[in-house]
C-alpha cells in the first residue's frame, strides 16, 4: 500500500522496547528497597500482594486511568499506610520505582530504525505510559512526547490522537500512528482518522471486528524500509514528470 505520510506518532512500550522485563525489574528493585527502608510494608506486600493492591487502587480510581504516575504513587502510599510505615517514604520509593521504569532495553532494530524514520518525517511519542525519553536517552529523535497524563485522556480516545496531529500541524489523514496494541493503537488511530501501522513482533493473527491496519510489520526497521521505498518512489515519479 502506498500513501503520503507527513508525520508519525509512535507508541513506546512494546513498540520500541518490551515492557515485561521492565515490570519484573520494577517489582524486584522496589521489593529490595522496601525490605531495606520499610520492612513492615515489604512483609505485608510482597510482589504478588503489591500487584493485587495496585489492581484494587486502579479499580477504585478508574477516573485516573489516564495517569499511571498518580495511580502508582497512590498504591505506594496506601501500602505504606496500611502497613504502619511512614507514608512520607512514598516519595523516595517512587524515585526508586521510576528509575527502574526507565531502564529500558530496546528491541535490536529499534534505535537505528527510529533514527532513520526521524530523518524522514517528524516523530511524536504518543503513549499511555510514563516513560521519560530524556532519562532513556532517546528524546533527540522526537519532536515531542504526549502522554495520556499530559492530555487528560488515554488512547484509544480520539482526542489524544487529534491533539498530537494539531501539535504536528498535520491533517489527521496525513499522520501515521505506529504501535503494537490492536485496540489502543491501531483501532484508536483508525477511528480518529489517522493512518495506522501495527508492529506485530510476536506473529499474532489480526483480530478486530471493525478495522484493519493500513500497514503491518514485524519490526520497526521494516517500517523504516517502507518509508525509504516511498521516498524513492516519489523521487522517481518527480524525475519522470
Describe the structure.
The chain is built from 11 helices and 6 strands. The chain folds into 2 domains: 7-17 and 107-240, Rossmann fold; 20-101, Up-down Bundle (Four Helix Bundle (Hemerythrin (Met), subunit A)). The chain has a 6-stranded parallel sheet, with helices on both faces. The longest helix has 21 residues, at 220-240. Helix 3 crosses helix 4 (68-83). The chain has helices at residues 20-37, 39-44, 47-60, 68-83, 90-101, 110-120, 133-136, 148-151, 158-168, 182-191, 220-240; strands at residues 7-10, 123-127, 144-147, 175-179, 195-199, 215-217. InterPro entries: HAD-like_hydrolase (IPR051400), HAD-like_sf (IPR036412), HAD-SF_hydro_IA (IPR006439), HAD_sf (IPR023214). It comes from Luteimonas salinilitoris. It is an enzyme of class 3 (hydrolase).
Gyration radius over CA: 20 Å
How widely separated are the two ends? 22 Å
What is the CATH superfamily label of the largest domain? HAD superfamily/HAD-like
What number of domains? 2
* CATH architecture heading of the largest domain: 3-Layer(aba) Sandwich
Beta content comes to 5-15%
Order of adjacent strands in the largest pleated sheet: 3-2-1-4-5-6
Series of H and E elements: EHHHHHHEHEHHEHEEH
Number of helices: 11
**Helix content, binned percent:** 40-55%
* DSSP, total strands: 6
- Would you state the CATH class of the largest domain? Alpha Beta
Structure classification:
alpha/beta
> Residue ranges: pLDDT <50 for 5 or more in a row?
none
Q: Please give the largest β-sheet.
A: 6 strands, parallel
- Any idea of the CATH topology of the largest domain? Rossmann fold
Shape: elongated
Rounded average pLDDT: 95
Protein name: HAD family hydrolase
Cofactor: Mg(2+)
Keywords: Hydrolase, Magnesium
EC number: 3.1.3.-
